[in-house]
Amino acid sequence: MYQEELKGYFLFDRYQRGEQAIIVHVNFSRQTMDAEDLNECMELAQSAGASVLSVFQCNRDEPDSRLYIGSGKAQEIAQYVEEQAVEIAIFNHTLSPTQERNLEKLFQCRVIDRTGLILDIFAQRARTFEGKLQVELAQLRYMSTRLVRGWTHLERQKGGIGMRGPGETQLETDRRLIRKRIEYIQQRLEKVTRQRQQVRQHRTRHEKATISLVGYTNAGKSTLFNALTTSTVYAHDQLFATLDPTIRSLSLPGMPDAFLADTVGFIRHLPHTLVAAFRSTLQETRESTLLLHVMDASHEELERNRESVLKVLEDIEAIEVAQLEVMNKIDRIPEGIEPHIDYDDEGKPRRVWISALRGQGLDLLRQAVAQLLEPQLKRSHIVLGPAQGKLRALLYERNAIVNETLDDEGNWILEVFLAREHLERLLESHPPC
Question: Which amino acids does the record list as binding GTP (predicted)?
């Protein structure tokens, strides 16, 4: 209903989007942002489809309230933009609406900050209905604070016969329409959230564990997901290659199958608007039985990436879920590392070294997952009579039967592997002979 009304909103005060871009990075003496953050920004820009012509860096104690950078550096960039016909300037920081407006007036090209860049990538990657709604919600919340970027006609009041005098400005109209659209999207997302909850309850009734892949973006989660489930989820060497969550069945040695969920990758300084918008999707992570924290073992900033993921898990209240670290891409480590499992002091797996692309160590990973899930399950031998076929069928439906034999009297002797509380509940409702 409001989409047509909002078409103009998405276009006003926007220069034509191009691919010739520059990146602006400020090194603050009081912060720890370094070259890795800059390299990541360049990867983000390339993932968004931009061609980076140049990178401008400067040192400051604190951001300038008007231009974020100093006026001298701003003039230098403006001259370069004019000479090279640059179409977009990307700041590797968070800009205020006023700073964006002032910079665009000076540069005469479109200016976006880190949050706007990530939102653009997410908009390109979203494929499902829910994913598109979540991205649009994040975009609207982000852009609603930037309506001051509009042309001067937005400040004019509506006029005409019967409408002269104090009235609603175009700017106020746009804000009202955006609020209505946000309310509409939130209602749709609430419905999707309820549907997801029903799916989770269905999985709970089948007593299957849910395992979620989490990790820094481009750590190889989707490649690992495909290798473990023989799926064809899109996987590519780029940031945020996949956005929408996917769930498939995962076979484990000596126990029932589990559900494996592939989730969106995390990143340092992940915008809070995205965390809030994707809360329903991230609910899958919070309610998982086990998290597989996938890391690029060959990455120079391995520890920093690990801490960034843990920070996001804390933000979405999933830090308490059991974790197994998966050190991926061992084929890229120069010194060479063979697939193996690291155990903690209690003899539990805490880290598995693999190469998802080469298929190395996948059996070890399944073994480690099974070891961590096994304490939650109960291996039992039960005897079912010929009249208890319904209970046998229920156990097969849950993939809980490991082995089955028949005795001389025609009874089924079953070796069952199932969560303790679920097995006890089934036996109470269908007592064996």
Answer: 215-222, 240-244, 262-265, 328-331, 355-357
Binding residue per annotation — 150?
Answer: no
Highest mean pLDDT among 56-70, 152-166, 386-400: 56-70
d(CA 379, CA 419) in angstroms, rounded, equals 9
User: Does residue 154 lie in a domain region?
Assistant: no
Instruction: Look up residue 106 and give its two tokens.
Output: 């000076």
Number of other CB atoms surrounding residue 300 within 10 Å: 10
**144 labeled part of a ligand binding site:** no
Whether 94 has a binding-site annotation, put simply, is no
Q: State yes or no: 419 annotated in a binding site.
A: no
pLDDT, tens digit, for every residue of 289-306? 899 999 999 988 899 889
- Whether 141 is covered by a domain: the verdict is no
Q: Is 219 annotated as a binding residue?
A: yes
Q: What is the pLDDT of residue 279?
A: 61
Tell me the pLDDT tens digit for each residue of 184-216. 888 887 787 677 666 655 555 455 778 989 888
CA 226 to chain centre: 17
Give the Cα separation of 388 and 254 in Å (integer).
24
In-domain check, residue 44: yes
Domain end residue (candidates: 64, 88, 123): 123
Does the annotation place 311 within a ligand binding site? no
Cβ atoms of residues 55 and 25 within 8 Å: yes
